[in-house]
Write a structure and sequence with these properties.
Layout (H helix, E strand, L loop, with lengths): L4 E7 L21 H6 L1 H10 L5 E4 L3 H12 L7 E3 L19 H5 L21 H18 L4 E6 L1 H12 L3 H4 L9 E7 L2 E9 L3
Parallel strand pairs: 1-4, 2-3, 2-4
Antiparallel strand pairs: 1-5, 5-6
Length: 206
C-alpha cells in the first residue's frame, strides 16, 4: 500500500506595484516589501498552519523564495528550500513586458477572468497554459512517488497552482483559468492510493 502525500501550495506574496502594469510571466520580478509588512498576520497564520516537518519547494524565481523566507521569519522553523524548475510561472515569451492595457488589442477579445492569455495560445518563444498543465502534472506525478508518506510545501505562482488543480481535478486548462488564486492563499490537496483528494482552495489559515 502506497503512503499518501499531502501537498500545500502557497501563492507568492504580491509583487511591486510598478510590475503589475505589464505582463511579467516568468520574469524575475520582486515582491512588494511594504505589502509583506502589512501581511504579517497572514504570514504568521501560514507559519502556524503549514505542516511540520515538511519538504519545501520553491520555483527558480526570487518572489517564491522571498515569500518562503517571510513565512520562516513569521514563526515557521526554517527548512531547506529545494528549487523545482517545473514550478516556474508560465513563460509568456516575447509578450512579457507588454502593457496589460494592450491585451484586448493583442487577442482581439477581452482577457480571461483571472489569466490574460487563452489556455491554448502559445506566445512566441513561450508556453500556453495547456503546456503548463502538462509540465506541472508531470512534476506532481514524480513527487507523489518520491515523497510517499511526507508533506510537501510548495511556494509557487498563480498559473502553476491553477495548472496543479487542472491535473488533480481532471479539469481543462480553460476551466482552471477561471479559478481565483489569491496571493498568500493556501491550496491543499493529497494523493492517496485511490486517487487525488482536494482539501481546499484559497484557504485562509487560522
Amino acid at each position: 500500500m502506497t503512503a499518501p502525500v499531502r501537498f500545500f501550495f502557497v501563492r507568492h506574496a504580491v509583487v511591486r506595484r510598478e510590475e503589475l502594469a505589464a505582463l511579467y510571466g516568468a520574469r524575475d520580478v520582486a515582491v512588494c516589501e511594504a505589502s509583506l509588512a502589512r501581511d504579517e498576520a497572514r504570514l504568521a497564520a501560514l507559519a502556524r498552519r503549514l505542516p511540520k516537518p515538511a519538504r519545501w519547494l520553491v520555483s527558480p524565481l526570487s518572489r517564491t523564495r522571498r515569500t518562503a523566507e517571510a513565512i520562516f521569519a513569521a514563526g515557521y522553523p526554517e527548512a531547506p528550500l529545494e528549487t523545482a524548475p517545473a514550478l516556474i510561472e508560465q513563460s509568456l515569451g516575447a509578450w512579457e513586458g507588454i502593457p496589460s492595457s494592450e491585451l484586448s488589442r493583442l487577442f482581439g477579445r477581452a482577457p480571461e477572468r483571472f489569466w490574460p492569455i487563452p489556455a491554448h495560445t502559445r506566445p512566441p518563444a513561450g508556453e500556453s497554459m495547456a503546456d503548463v498543465v502538462a509540465r506541472v502534472g508531470a512534476l506532481l506525478t514524480r513527487l507523489k512517488t518520491r515523497h510517499a508518506g511526507e508533506d510537501v510545501v510548495a511556494i509557487a505562482h498563480g498559473g502553476v497552482i491553477r495548472a496543479a488543480l487542472a491535473h488533480v481535478l481532471g479539469i481543462s486548462a480553460e476551466q482552471a483559468q477561471n479559478v481565483s488564486i489569491a496571493n498568500l492563499s493556501l491550496t491543499h490537496f493529497e494523493w492517496h492510493e485511490q486517487g487525488w483528494w482536494v482539501g481546499g482552495i484559497n484557504l485562509e489559515p487560522a
